UniProtKB/TrEMBL annotation, chain A:
Residues 253-263 have a biased composition (Basic and acidic residues). Keywords: Cytoplasm, GTP-binding, Hydrolase, Mitochondrion, Nucleotide-binding, Protein biosynthesis, Translation regulation. Residues 11-25 have a biased composition (Acidic residues). It comes from Penicilliopsis zonata CBS 506.65. The lineage of its organism: Eukaryota, Fungi, Dikarya, Ascomycota, Pezizomycotina. This is Elongation factor 1 alpha-like protein.
UniProtKB/TrEMBL annotation, chain B:
Its cofactor is a divalent metal cation. GO terms for molecular function: metal ion binding. Residues 1-138 form the eRF1/Pelota-like N-terminal domain. It comes from the Eukaryota. This is Protein DOM34 homolog. It comes from Penicilliopsis zonata CBS 506.65.
Length: 821, 427
């Protein structure tokens, strides 16, 4: 109900407003009323002329008066007479003014001019109403009076500062016009000036001044400013030309021009708020009008109106007299806001700017477009706070390859740690990291305590890499973990792979990120043998078939066999023969007896007397001998996504992986396959440190923008949109069979990517050496044979030759090979 | 399926009236009805009549229509069979030769007529068709247990219903689970979410009543097999237990029927491993698909060990049969029923005669595998037909060269069916 009432009220307001507008413009077409009005006007005019003293008034003045007095002829006559009399009284003290107020002869002709708004408003009551009359004029205020603009009435003797400023401004404007024909300054303006300047310079003297006041005063200063630079500034030129145009024309044309201005100022309630301000300035303004009777009969639109309506109503201001220039203080420097500039509200409000800055800081997409070119100076500081819209990430357009060559860096290598389950891979790597201080002692101590609490004290070192809760509870590595450490020569990336046969897919993902491999073997009785049958063999074959050339065999748990040299040699002999058969060159195989748990021969030489027989390299020394590996930097970008995760508040969507080929930089567009979606790189990290670019071989984290996470899965391939990778549903591959191959269902693995598929056809078995077909269309391919097969998949998968793929079935690796087409 | 009326003549022609009673019967109907057969069933047909004034009115009429089958469309997901063909009987609303698509419905009789034409067109009720009919009406009355299997791995779960004759992938759950990272618990959170989504999906597919009142009710719950590599299935079981003890007590009814099995991967073809695991075998005992799975394993084992005593592929098997290798004393012909669904009459005849020959003349054993099962899928990979032979066949290559032209090579057909926007494969 109350809402309804409110609504009604507001409608009423509107009605009133409309009425007012209508009356104001005399738009009422009622002929009777018109006739009556005409009669009244004639009456008043005749009474004015006939009365003592004889006063001449324009038809418009009369009409206006009549309107205000509801067509009461007597009251109107009195009002006009009083007004005119006052004007006459005020003239004498003015000295040095060029012209006097008395109406020029053209007045009558002006009356003859067809009705114009300019005529009508020229001396409208709010411009030159006598002070004592003011209260009588009741024009329905549509909006609350802007009290802040008002101030104490002039009659109180002390003019409010704002009023004084406004008055001074008005005067200046009229002076500008007046001064152009005769540059004699008005004394009145001079006495006003010091006060104004003082106010501007000393805001403290007016502690209660509102911001608006200050703004208006600053505006005042600004108006003066262009003149300082003479006509050099473009704006000053514009003003000058406008001024020229304003002074030259005849009265009629200038009146018309003002009429236009008025008309533009008029719409809506614009002039209403200004009224309060202008009332105060009524008296000085009147003087101004008298000073410049021909050119500028009326005050230019108020500052407020100018601001609201825009540049078009910029006062026909003109060059200031020289003394004004001197005294004009660049208030811009103080408040930094130019309100004379039309404020079109195109830019965001200060509130918006703050909200934008806040929301973008929170990582949300800002809905507001960034501030446009027309910046408001006051808010310039806040503009700097706002974060760039995420949609457009500036690329630095670096030449990544030349950048890469410029940078002096340690050689980098990554290796994968493989071996049978419980061979001690994670523990060995934990030991390595702990001894190299890559993990601090406190964390280690914490792990040790927690591991003992759940009765797995011997797993404490492995916890450095086994971060998952399930991994810790079960004491088994499930997924690969990457970590890094540096020696004097090399920056290493460890990829700790799981040994359990169920997690071979994860191990394949890890091996695809590695340059060489560390094969960990459990030397203890029984475990070595079972491992050889199990994943020791499978892992070694897998890393070899994935292109790893160098392998370091860490014979672990030597302490459990009392550093038995014979045991070590037995293992060395068995493993090396197997590895040679698998295709590793003997020079790329090295053996180290060590104990990961105790740290013997890992970073320091074993102190155990039984181990004295071993004089070769320790593990860390062996790792350091690795040759630098070259990567395909020049090729188009390829990166297999290892993980998709939420990086944090600042980067809600991140992917990690190792660049297989090519390079990228911040701001690049990348294409994700098989979804075919594009994303842009917001930022990137190389080895957990922010960077601008990255090249093949580096393990990186990309923070993405402009893509939905559903298009990203681990195993997808990132490539450059210019040379995208193709999605295949079928391919031919040359494989080495580890088990019998026939048309069968298999899982296809390539790094993180693994999909179900099937061998649809066995094309031929091939000769191992020459690759020539031995037997076409064999029924079955025996283990150890090389064959060309056709593999089909249900879904399209990003693959391209020469990718190294692994085929698995039933939990076993059945074949590995090279994709041909 | 209930056999209402059986009028199969010794010549092979004749009619059969059947009443499908459960969704799987539609699958049987799909195998029984072949293009060229006459099918009579009740239908709803929209009839448009034009008045003299030119105004048209359409109304739906219930009719008994007989059509000559042209095409079959089987939606395994919802077990719906649509049979398209030309109308053969004149009614007041239809003319002979108009096309109609019959939608077979549960508990509505349909009559199927197969004819042997004078000049050999039409196959009639051949031995395979009769055998299928026996399977369909389940003469022995040995309805076997059904099971629900959830084959999963991190971020991927396949929920499938294992029926007697087909395995239906009901839904695939795929989620991106963040990998483990140092210091982050995203992985655990991701897994919990994945478990919850999988559980919700599973319950929806089971149409499981989750209200607490159902706790007292004792409608039977199918065995639920959870299979995965690693610890995913165990984790899922724990998750279900957790939910049962906290938010959803009705789940307690489900708990006893859950069996956790190991599988090599979360893909559907690991289902064979699931079905072979001892714990599943005890539940599902001697079911058709368990036998079929074992048969395929035996065959593949034979192929590995004694390559020459096993063969696969259409030409190879036919040649083996010609040599008399698939006969008494261990000769087994394994054939997928996909071959009998061939649209071409000649193709069907070819395989039916081969089956008849092995069984009746050679004295070998014939096993027809359902192509909608995991084992049938594996067989399809080998060309849909394979044989264990009684003696080693010479490793001949003479028909290699022309094979590409004459025969379709053993290509696995992907039984992909997409429905409701979810990509699902049907065995």
């Amino acid at each position: 109900m109350s809402r309804h009432r409110m609504k009604t009220v507001s409608y009423d307001d509107d009605d009133d407003y409309d009425d007012y507008e209508e009356d104001d413009g005399y738009a009422s077409p009622d002929p009777e009323e018109q006739a009556r009005l005409e009669q009244c006007i004639q009456d008043v005019l005749s009474q004015l002329r006939g009365g003592e003293p004889s006063v001449s008034a324009s038809r418009e003045e009369v009409t206006e008066a009549l309107w205000h007095y509801y067509n009461d002829v007597t009251k109107s006559v009195n009002y006009i007479r009083g007004k005119k009399a006052k004007e006459v009284q005020k003239q004498p003290p003015k000295k040095g003014t060029v012209s006097s107020y008395p109406l020029p002869p053209s007045w009558s002709s002006a009356c003859a001019v067809p009705f114009s708004a300019a005529e009508f408003f020229r001396d409208s009551p709010w411009l030159n109403v006598p002070e004592h009359r003011k209260a009588d004029i009741i024009v329905e205020p549509l909006h609350p009076r802007l009290g802040l603009l008002g101030g104490a009435p002039e009659a109180g003797g002390k003019v409010s500062k704002l009023a004084a400023l406004a008055a001074a401004r008005k005067k200046k404007e009229s002076e500008k016009v007046a001064a152009s024909p005769s540059p004699v300054p008005t004394p009145k303006a001079e006495e006003q000036k010091p006060e104004e300047v003082g106010d501007n310079n000393n805001p403290a003297s007016a502690p209660s001044r509102s911001l608006l006041e200050r703004l208006s005063s600053s505006h005042n200063g600004r108006q003066l400013k262009p003149a300082e630079g003479g006509l050099g500034g473009l704006r000053a030129l514009g003003k000058g030309s406008r001024m020229g145009g304003a002074t030259a024309p005849t009265k009629k044309s200038s009146l018309e021009k003002e009429a236009e201005i008025r008309a533009q100022t008029k719409p809506g309630s614009v002039t209403q708020p200004a009224k309060g301000e202008e009332k105060e300035t009524a008296v000085p303004q009147q003087q101004d009008e008298q000073q410049a009777p021909v050119v500028n009969m009326m005050a230019s639109p108020s500052t407020f109106a100018t601001i609201i309506v825009g540049d078009a109503t910029r006062p026909v201001a003109a060059a200031q007299s020289s003394h004004l220039k001197v005294q004009s203080v660049d208030v811009m420097d103080i408040y930094g806001q130019d309100l004379t500039e039309a404020f079109d509200f195109a830019g965001p409000s200060p509130d918006d700017l703050v909200l934008n800055a806040q929301s973008s800081a929170k990582g949300f997409k800002s809905k507001q477009p960034a501030s446009k070119s027309k910046k408001v100076d006051l808010t310039g500081g806040m503009n700097n706070l706002s974060v760039e819209e995420k949609v457009s990430i500036k690329s630095k357009n670096l030449d990544v390859l030349s950048e890469y060559k410029k940078v002096e860096r340690k050689k980098a290598a990554s290796f994968v740690v493989i071996g049978h389950v419980d061979a001690g891979k994670s523990t060995l790597m934990g030991r390595l990291l702990a001894d190299l201080q890559a993990v601090d002692a406190r964390t280690l101590e914490k792990y040790r305590r927690e591991a003992e609490k759940i009765g797995k004290g011997s797993f404490a070192l492995a916890w450095v890499l086994d971060q998952g809760s399930e991994e810790r509870a079960r004491g088994v590595t499930i997924d690969i973990a990457t970590n890094k450490f540096e020696t004097d020569k090399t920056a290493f990336t460890i990829v700790d792979a799981p040994g359990h046969r169920d997690f071979v897919p994860n191990m394949i993902a890890g091996a695809s990120q590695a340059d060489f491999a560390v094969l960990v073997i459990d030397a203890s009785t029984g475990n070595f043998e079972s491992g050889l049958k199990g994943q020791t063999k499978e892992h070694a074959l897998l890393v070899r078939s994935m292109g790893v050339q160098k392998i370091v065999v860490a014979v672990n748990k030597m302490d459990t066999v009392e550093w038995d040299r014979e045991r070590f040699e037995e293992i060395e002999q068995q493993i090396s023969s197997f590895l040679t058969a698998a295709g590793f060159q003997p020079k790329n195989i090295s053996f180290i007896p060590l104990s990961g748990f105790h740290g013997d021969n890992v970073t320091r030489r074993s102190e155990a007397p039984q181990a004295a027989w071993y004089q070769g390299r320790t593990l860390i020394e062996e790792l350091d001998t690795s040759e630098p590996f070259s990567h395909a930097l020049e090729k188009p970008l390829r990166m297999t996504i290892a993980d998709v995760f939420r990086g944090g508040v600042q980067s809600p969507l991140s992917i990690s992986g190792r660049i297989d080929a090519g390079s990228l930089q911040v701001g690049d567009q990348i294409l994700i396959m098989p979804s075919g979606e594009k994303a842009s790189i917001r930022s990137l990290e190389v080895d957990s440190a922010p960077a601008d670019w990255a090249v093949a071989g580096q393990n990186i984290v990309l923070n993405l923008a402009n893509i939905d996470p559903i298009h990203l899965r681990s195993g997808d391939v990132v490539c450059s949109p210019a040379s995208p990778i193709q999605n295949l549903t079928s391919f031919t591959t040359k494989v080495l069979a580890f088990e019998h191959l026939m048309p069968m269902l298999v899982d296809i693995h390539r790094g993180r990517l693994h999909v179900p598929g099937r061998i649809s056809r066995v094309v031929a078995t091939l000769d191992k050496g020459s690759g020539a077909p031995v037997k076409k269309r064999p029924k079955i391919v025996a283990p150890g044979a090389v064959a060309r097969i056709v593999v089909e998949m249900d879904q399209a998968v990003p693959l391209e030759a020469p990718a190294r793929i692994v085929l698995r079935a039933g939990g076993n690796t059945v074949a590995a090979g090279l994709l041909e087409s | 399926m209930r056999l209402v009326k059986n009028r199969i003549e010794p010549t092979g022609s004749g009619t059969v009236t059947l009443c499908p009673e459960e969704p799987e019967d539609m699958w049987h109907a799909y195998n029984l009805i072949r293009p060229g057969d006459l099918l009579k069933a009740s239908a709803v047909r929209r009839v448009t009549t034009t008045q003299d004034t030119g105004s048209t009115s359409s109304l739906r009429v219930h009719l008994m229509l007989e059509i000559r089958v042209k095409n079959l469309d089987f939606d395994a997901q919802s077990s719906q069979l649509h049979v398209a063909g030309q109308i053969m009987n004149e009614t007041q609303h239809t003319k002979i030769g108009q096309f109609h698509t019959l939608d077979l419905e549960l508990n509505r009789n349909f009559t199927l007529e197969k004819e042997v034409g004078a000049n050999g067109e039409g196959v009639g009720w051949d031995s395979i068709a009769v055998e299928m009919l026996k399977d369909a009406v389940d003469e022995g009355g040995k309805r076997r247990a059904e099971a629900v299997a959830v084959v999963m791995q991190e971020g991927l779960a396949h929920i499938c219903f294992i029926g007697q004759f087909q395995t239906i992938l009901k839904q695939k759950v795929e989620m991106s689970v963040p990998r483990k990272r140092s210091g982050g618990s995203d992985h655990d959170k991701g897994m919990t979410k994945f478990y919850q989504v999988t559980l919700d999906t599973l319950l929806r597919q089971l149409e499981f009543n989750t209200s607490t009142t159902s706790l007292t009710g004792n409608d039977p719950v199918k065995p639920i097999l959870l299979a995965s590599p690693g610890f995913v299935a165990t984790g899922f079981q724990k998750h279900i237990q957790g939910v049962a003890s906290t938010t959803m007590p009705a789940l307690k009814r489900l708990l006893p029927s859950i069996v956790v099995v190991h599988s090599a991967s979360g893909y559907l073809h690991s289902l064979s491993e699931v079905l072979q695991s001892p714990s599943v075998k005890t539940i599902l005992a001697d079911t058709k698909y368990a036998r079929e799975t074992r048969l395929m394993d035996d065959f593949l084992e034979q192929l590995r060990k004694e390559t020459n005593r096993a063969t696969y592929g259409m030409r190879e098997v036919e040649s083996a049969v010609d040599q008399g290798a698939v006969g008494r004393g261990g000769g087994i012909l394994i054939i997928s029923n996909r071959l009998f669904r061939s649209q071409e009459v000649a193709q069907r005849k070819r395989w039916v005669s081969l089956v008849d020959r092995v069984r009746d003349i050679e004295g070998g054993e014939v096993r027809i595998l359902s192509s909608d099962h995991e084992s049938g899928k594996r067989l399809d990979g080998l060309g849909g037909i394979a044989a264990l032979t009684t003696f080693p066949l010479p490793d001949d290559e003479d028909f290699d060269s022309d094979e590409d032209n004459t025969d379709s090579p053993p290509v696995v057909t992907a039984g992909m069916v997409v429905s409701n926007g979810q990509s699902s494969a049907v065995y």
